[in-house]
């Protein structure tokens, strides 16, 4: 370096040398690995490539690839959720139907006066509607006695969840909470403002389907959220009061994939998930579309505000996405069409230093724009031209944020690292912190997965920066991860490790399986204390509903399906897909592992006195185990289910169990004699008192089925401990409360239709399928588990005087 070289030029030279050294080091390591593997090679951009990233590149089969463009065949596993996961869920949402409210005239419809079927009729019913063959009217039952809407209110108290799949940049600091320590995010169809100081939440609940995009106005007072479905909605709302400022509908299709306010706050740009990848620009104050255009067959991953001083007025938005698309969009001021302003675009000019590749994230500042690439680089652009390339991450750069002065950037990558960069110092890396795959819970309990081998990293879904209002210094980074965790990262001086603090923990992507987001399927409550457990894929969480925190997280050895909590509170049993059930203590210490079958354990239930555990497996068998101690020895097996058992209930006297199965049968067993009840004896069972009632079929739950529904539209039922209220979970995303028994006008076995619907109290928020509902012991709290939203909702149930 000769005399006369500026400080900035020297910094750039040293920074580039550092990058070259990293690449050289990586090349040497790759060569050594190649020799040790007998010559096999894997070529990737960036240095020091982690083993999980080398194993995951380009693993799509032809059937998984988009047919739109050849460029999509270059999409790595890292972007599966954005390209395919979101699309699959949005298409499912297009078909979802919300049942209309019960009309007053329905109460005047006649009842289906029940008569027990003859033997000939019962034989015919077994082929079409088998549960009706053994159903019977209980003694003393009167129609209409429990048809009215229950005298309760259902209020959402807390959301244990954070959407970590399919969408990104869905997490923000907000100043609507004390000391500015508020979080804004979404789970299911609910936008959540979470106060870190008090661990309390407030909600925006206008959406009826899952939220897929979030943006915040420049001053942070307004949020815009967009959802999925046949006709997606975009709401603009006040972050503090939750009041709707605008509802924008009618132009987007399938889902709002990304949203951005214009720099002046007057406009909102939205990217649709339709086949044309449309961009729609709203004047949200007037509630109308001012411009829209189809961008072509390349998927748009993000739209952001253009803040570059020289170009933002003419081109207020930037879109980036598949196949190297990077275009600044603005209005054609010379013409109008159908009261709309045509859009014009200016593409990014790569020059000789950039390559065309999928662009994954972007952030604009008054001086430059930073664009994250699929190969892990940052493209630094000015005036639509690429000026610099910075090696940033191993794999796609998934999120970019900046402090208030735009002097510091933060990037989050698929590799699980969060890095800080000095924009004033030649984009030198200031720090790099990996978010652990095995983090402590909010109470400090260690995740049991410390030794688990993961096949993918805890990739970063969102990054935001909390800036000191006076000095402008970075106080903390806010980080959302694919495993469902939200963390605060406090920067420390160079050479000292940053401090990572979990703010929220929740179910998320299964890091032991490539691209497996999974489903939340298991839920159980403590018999006397305000605690519950939830099972999603290979993770079990123990929650406290008073402190609203996770007590402990437990890594399952295989995919979980169901869970039960013993009536004495001492044992938690988890059923797995590999046919094993685990017996855990109430502090999640493993007591015993029992193989019940070679097929999955589908359902579990303890007897009322806690001495017997019934286990239903996918080979259509019910097994009974001795739960009086910790031995859990097999006591016998019950056969006779025509399909996989879905639910089990014990009679109050402990003599019978009732089972509903996938073949729509209701089956009764005498567990004293280990025999299946015949039809005549089964009809008498309509007068039996049950400790719990979880059967989807039977006299007491005839009225739960939505209008025009299929028999899989209701996924779970749970009767309150006092026997007065019945909670149901639906495919539609609704949680409902009925009076119990829930019969309505009854079902006529000649047509199989419900004659009139009883009214219910409805709770929305999950957006997609609700898989489980469970009452806590005091009947004033209800817990619901979403399926793909991987969230548990805590509801306050208040009885009206």
Automatic annotation (TrEMBL):
It comes from the Eukaryota. Residues 7-34 form a coiled coil. Residues 200-440 form the EML-like first beta-propeller domain. The lineage of its organism: Eukaryota, Discoba, Euglenozoa, Kinetoplastea, Metakinetoplastina. The keyword tRNA processing does not apply. InterPro entries: Beta-prop_EML-like_2nd, Beta-prop_EML_1st, HELP, Quinoprotein_ADH-like_sf, WD40/YVTN_repeat-like_dom_sf, WD40_repeat_dom_sf, WD40_rpt, WD_repeat_EMAP. It comes from Bodo saltans (Flagellated protozoan). The keyword Repeat applies. Belongs to the WD repeat EMAP family. Residues 520-797 form the EML-like second beta-propeller domain. This is Guanine nucleotide-binding protein subunit beta-like protein. GO terms for molecular function: microtubule binding. Pfam families: Beta-prop_EML, Beta-prop_EML_2, HELP. SMART domains: WD40 (SM00320). Signal peptide: none annotated. Keywords: Coiled coil, Repeat, WD repeat.
């Amino acid at each position: 370096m000769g005399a006369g070289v500026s400080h900035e030029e020297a910094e750039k030279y040293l920074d580039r040398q550092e990058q070259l050294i990293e690449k050289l080091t990586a090349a040497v390591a790759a060569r050594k690995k190649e020799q040790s593997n007998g010559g096999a090679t894997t070529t990737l951009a960036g240095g020091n490539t982690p083993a999980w990233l080398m194993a995951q590149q380009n693993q799509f089969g032809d059937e998984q690839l988009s047919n739109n463009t050849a460029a999509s065949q270059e999409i790595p596993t890292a972007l599966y959720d954005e390209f395919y996961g979101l699309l699959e869920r949005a298409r499912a949402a297009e078909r979802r139907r919300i049942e209309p409210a019960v009309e007053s005239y329905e109460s005047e419809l006649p009842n289906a006066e029940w008569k027990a079927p003859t033997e000939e009729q019962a034989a015919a019913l077994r082929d079409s509607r088998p549960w009706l063959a053994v159903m019977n009217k209980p003694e003393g039952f009167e129609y209409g006695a429990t048809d009215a809407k229950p005298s309760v209110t259902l209020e959402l108290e807390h959301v244990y969840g954070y959407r970590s799949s399919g969408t990104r940049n869905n997490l923000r600091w907000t100043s609507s909470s004390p000391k500015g320590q508020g979080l804004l995010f979404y789970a299911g169809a609910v936008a959540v403002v979470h106060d870190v100081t008090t661990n309390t939440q407030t909600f925006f609940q206008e959406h009826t389907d899952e939220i897929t995009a979030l943006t915040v106005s420049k001053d942070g007072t307004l949020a815009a959220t967009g959802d999925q479905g046949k006709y997606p909605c975009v709401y603009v709302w006040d972050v503090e009061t939750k009041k709707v400022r605008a509802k924008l509908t009618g132009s987007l299709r399938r889902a709002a994939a990304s949203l951005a306010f214009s720099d002046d706050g007057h406009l909102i740009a939205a990217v649709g998930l339709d086949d044309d990848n449309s961009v729609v620009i709203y004047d949200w104050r007037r509630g109308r579309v001012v411009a829209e255009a189809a961008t072509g067959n390349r998927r748009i991953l993000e739209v952001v505000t253009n803040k570059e001083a020289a170009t933002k007025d003419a081109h207020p938005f930037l879109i980036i996405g598949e196949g190297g698309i990077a275009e600044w969009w603005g209005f054609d001021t010379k013409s109008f069409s159908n009261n709309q302003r045509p859009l014009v675009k200016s593409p990014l000019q790569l020059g000789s230093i950039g390559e065309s590749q999928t662009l994954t994230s972007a952030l604009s500042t008054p001086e430059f724009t930073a664009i994250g690439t699929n190969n892990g680089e940052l493209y630094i652009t000015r005036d639509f031209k690429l000026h610099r390339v910075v090696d940033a991450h191993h794999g796609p750069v998934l999120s970019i944020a900046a402090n208030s002065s735009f002097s510091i950037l933060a990037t989050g990558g698929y590799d699980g690292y969060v890095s800080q960069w000095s924009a004033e110092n030649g984009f030198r890396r200031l720090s790099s912190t990996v978010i652990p795959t095995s983090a402590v819970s909010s109470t400090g309990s260690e995740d049991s997965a410390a030794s688990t081998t993961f096949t993918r990293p805890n990739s970063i879904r969102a990054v935001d920066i909390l800036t000191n209002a006076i000095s402008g210094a970075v106080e903390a980074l806010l980080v959302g991860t694919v495993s469902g965790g939200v963390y605060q990262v406090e920067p420390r001086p160079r050479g000292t490790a940053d401090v990572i603090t979990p703010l929220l923990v929740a179910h998320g992507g299964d890091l032991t399986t490539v691209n497996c987001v999974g489903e939340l399927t298991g839920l159980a409550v403590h018999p006397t204390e305000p605690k519950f457990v939830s099972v999603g894929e290979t993770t079990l969480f123990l929650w406290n509903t008073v402190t609203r925190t996770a007590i402990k997280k437990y890594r399952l050895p295989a995919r979980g399906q169901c869970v039960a909590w013993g009536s004495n509170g001492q044992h938690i049993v988890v059923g797995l897909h590999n046919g094993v059930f685990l017996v855990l203590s109430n502090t999640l210490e493993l007591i015993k592992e029992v193989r019940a079958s070679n097929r999955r354990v589908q359902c579990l239930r303890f007897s009322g006195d806690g001495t017997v555990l019934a286990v239903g497996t996918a080979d259509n068998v019910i097994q009974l185990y001795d739960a009086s101690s910790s031995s859990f020895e097999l006591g016998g097996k019950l056969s006779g289910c025509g399909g996989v058992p879905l639910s089990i209930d014990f009679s109050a006297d402990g003599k019978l169990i009732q089972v509903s199965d996938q073949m729509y049968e209701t089956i009764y067993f005498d567990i004293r004699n280990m025999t299946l009840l015949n039809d005549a004896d089964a009809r008498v069972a309509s007068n039996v008192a049950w400790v719990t009632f979880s059967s989807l079929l039977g006299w007491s739950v005839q009225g739960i089925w939505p209008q025009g529904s299929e028999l899989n539209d209701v996924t779970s039922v749970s009767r309150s401990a006092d026997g007065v209220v019945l909670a149901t979970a639906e495919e539609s995303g609704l949680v409902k409360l009925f009076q119990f028994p829930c019969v309505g006008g009854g079902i006529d076995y000649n047509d199989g239709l419900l004659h009139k619907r009883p009214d219910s109290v409805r709770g929305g928020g999950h957006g997609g399928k609700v898989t489980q509902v469970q009452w806590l012991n005091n009947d004033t709290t209800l817990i619901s588990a979403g399926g793909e939203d991987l969230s548990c909702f805590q509801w306050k149930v208040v009885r009206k005087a």
